[in-house]
Amino acid sequence: MHKIDFCTRRPLHSIELTRTIEHVVQASLPQHTLMQRAGLAVAHLAMAIAPHSRRIWIACGPGNNGGDGLEAAVYLQQWGKSPIVTWLGNPDKAPADAAASFQLAAEAGVTLAGVPPHDHDLCIDALLGIGVSNRTPEGQMAHWINLMNAGQAPVLAADIPTGLHADTGTAAQTTVRATHTLSLLTLKPGLFTAHGRDAAGTVWLDDLGSSEILSTATGEAFLPSAWLAGQPVSAARLHASHKGSYGDVAVVGGAPGMTGAALLAASAALHAGAGRVFVGLLDGETMTVDASQPELMFRAVDSLDFRTMTVVCGCGGGDAIRSPLARILSISALLVIDADALNSIANDAQLQNLLTARTRHFAGTVLTPHPLEAARLLGVTTAEVQHDRLAAADQLAQRYGCTVVLKGSGTVIAAPGQTPVINPTGNAWLATAGTGDVLAGMIGAGLASGKNAFEAACEAAFRHGQVADQWTGIRPLTASALSQSL
To answer: What is the domain range of residue 375?
Structure first.
């Protein structure tokens, strides 16, 4: 069993692939063994979470997830605990493994109750597993979930919190909010994106003794490891180098009243290690120096040679970004497209054609949409994007031939020919104006240093979120503080 601490690169497996793996594993084991292993793993983690607990409420659904809970109850009973099982199943209608687990629990003397206990030290959610991820909890099941969420006892979800979709991370109206989730056999992508991180709490994995079989199964996505945060900029630099060794970044944006967005992106590029950072503001060139960041070099947009620079385009660009955008798309070798530049492309077929044509001529392009911008680019609703973030990011990557960073809880990075990444770092401190501009600038610095687009995007997203995770100040994390903390 492993706590998922992002120190190791881990594959994420869909419901369909998990079911395939499960069938292969079951075929190699005696009947009922896999469920017994799952129950034992749940019981072990329950004792690790709440070692002094006595009364443990185990809410079991009618299928095999409920069978895992019943098996856990047998072990807990043998260890001197007092598990109380509420089961929504019927021995005559339950799957064979779940029915066998119910019989074992009854023979072991486990208390089988019709209603949940009023007082308990720990709750185990074993209501719905991955096989019924599209089912919306209702009736008695929904009532039990509400009791779990309202109670003071920690909640351990077996495999997936009930109400959460294992593939997409979308949550039903009534969803378990677990303090811990033990993902069984495989890690599921829905635990780490959309509503997954809020519902799952601390995530653990037990492969149920199937590591050899799992080693041959390629995931649909993966969690990156902490190496993406990289070394301090100084540690990675050769002594015999100069500012030209780390590339030039040009930030184009900052329409009237929105210059702050461009300055944040430029500051982030500087702090992330770019050799030189130029700023082309779209506000009539009213600013020639930033006294707080005198390293930034202000230039007229028309004077910038985009062919020799990594361009970060769109931050605070407003409608003014439309004017230089066609030239930027046509000649810049390396490009990060953010904010209003994305909206301009979404509304202009000619710009879309220029964007897709870049894949034939240039080294790297990164799109950094939030869900609404992604929806505009795809011609769908924001709700449709959020319903399946992995699919939406992949559709954007394939349509435009670019690396895509779909921002949000569990940022998704996708690119043609690459296994998508769900970024595991970051928290609600990032839910403030300007943090997306900082991310765009960081990606630009990565591209300028020689990283490919996918690598630059993954590293920047990880590091961006890591700063928020490590934020210890009593004041909120602002975008400018985020940039300076790099």
So the answer is: 226-230+241-484
Q: Which residues contact 116 (CB under 8 A, 6 or more apart)?
A: 57, 59, 84, 86, 144, 147
Give the residue-averaged pLDDT of 197-216. 93
Cα-based distances in Å from 428 to 138, 197, 433 = 30, 11, 12
* CB 198 within 8 Å of CB 170: no
Number of folded domains that form the chain: 2
Beta bridge partners of 125: 59, 157
Q: Domain of 339: which CATH number? A: 3.40.1190.20
State how beta strands 403-406 and 412-414 pair.
Answer: antiparallel
| Residue that the structure tokens 């369909």 belong to | 16
Same-domain check for residues 444 and 385: yes
- In this structure, what are the phi and psi dihedrals at residue 18, rounded to the nearest 5 degrees? -60, -40
Same domain for 270 and 164:
no
Asked whether residue 40 falls in the same domain as residue 97, the answer is yes
Contact 111/96 with Cβ under 8 angstroms? no
pTM attached to this predicted model: 0.93
pLDDT in tens, 34-90: 999 999 999 999 999 999 999 999 999 999 999 999 999 999 999 999 999 999 999
Q: Quick one: residue 96, left, alpha or beta (phi over 0 = left, psi -120 to 50 = alpha)? A: alpha
Asked whether residue 464 carries a pLDDT value surpassing 90, the answer given is: yes
In a domain, 236, yes or no: no
β-strands 111-113, 82-87: how paired? parallel
CA dist 359 and 356 (Å) reads: 6
**Of residues 224, 278, 270, 281, the one with CA closest to residue 420:** 224
Q: How far is CA 276 from CA 245, 250, 426, in A?
A: 10, 9, 28
Q: Is 181 helix (H, G, I), strand (E, B) or coil?
A: strand
Distance CA 373, CA 125 (A): 36
